[in-house]
Write a structure and sequence with these properties.
about 270 residues; about 15% strand; 8-stranded parallel β-sheet; alpha/beta; binds zinc ion; globular; TIM Barrel
Length: about 270
């Protein structure tokens, strides 16, 4: 092809796709919030679940489950894809009471002997329980083994946890679900061992456009944010693809280097393939 021919083809391509800066880029994704709990196992056998992640552009994912066997099923089939976190819930009944059950601490300590886990969580907790002996023991185990704690807690509770357990790295689920950008930014400024994932946070990009308050924090702390889906009920597995398309849409509004970090590189750096 002549140089002139190449230019004509290039122009045609640009006309076809529109301005490439406006097209949603397809960044490879590290998903920081996937569950594979008992009700999911029959509906989406491991190969199917792994295929859903791959089709959504998810290269690697933090997975936890109730019970933990679901996480191990996925991990055994795809150890370079799955980043296993140990959930301290033996059954769903542990969700509200785990922090006051010494059996949970023993369970966690015993499961950790497998040596495959990169974190403990996701767990729920409120501010009054931060000093509970079981929480303290789990924080000790995390610090000793350099494991993350994946905490679904409000802003008051994450601040207390970070102050009480300064040796532990925390992954804050859903950025506290309702904490505003200003609060998240203030905590990131103050606590170097805090990372934040944005699963289910539609307010980051309402209508597909990044809110200016969030954009400012993403640009200030591009090394501290990750994206996630949260397959907290089985039906969520059906929307992994569309939820990631929404994420790709707002990532495409950020400078490429920032988007790449939030999409995948932060997760890859924090959780290198063993
Ligand atoms: Zn969750």
């Amino acid at each position: 092809m002549t140089a002139r021919g190449s230019l004509v083809s290039l122009a045609a391509v640009l006309l076809l796709v529109g301005d490439p800066r406006l097209a949603a880029a397809q960044y490879p994704i590290f998903d920081a919030h996937i569950h594979y709990s008992r009700p999911d196992w029959d509906a989406y056998p491991p190969e199917r679940a792994l295929a859903i992640l791959a089709q959504a552009g998810v290269r690697r994912a933090i997975v936890s489950s109730t019970p933990d066997d679901g996480t191990l099923r996925l991990y055994e089939r795809a150890p370079s894809v799955i980043v296993p976190f140990l959930r301290p819930y033996r059954t769903r009944d542990d969700m509200g009471s785990w922090h006051e059950d010494t059996g949970v601490a023993a369970y966690v300590e015993d499961r950790l002997k497998r040596g495959v886990y990169r974190g403990i969580g996701e767990f729920h907790l409120d501010a009054t329980a931060v000093d509970a002996p079981v929480v303290r023991r789990i924080a000790e185990l995390a610090a000793e083994r350099d494991l993350f704690l994946h905490a679904h807690v409000d802003a008051e509770t994450i601040e207390k946890l970070l102050g009480r357990y300064p040796k532990v790295r925390f992954l804050w689920a859903h950025a506290g679900m309702s904490a505003d950008a200003e609060t998240v930014g203030r905590l990131l400024d103050r606590f170097p061992k805090l990372w934040v994932e944005l699963a289910l946070r539609g307010d980051v990009a309402p209508g597909g456009r990044i809110h200016p308050e969030w954009r400012a924090r993403l640009l200030r702390h591009p090394d501290r944010f990750m994206v996630g889906t949260d397959t907290w009920v089985t039906s969520r597995w059906e929307i992994v693809g569309s939820s990631m398309r929404d994420v790709q849409q707002w990532l495409s509004e950020l400078p490429v280097e920032v988007a790449e970090q939030i999409a995948r590189k932060n997760g890859a750096r924090l959780f290198p393939v063993p």
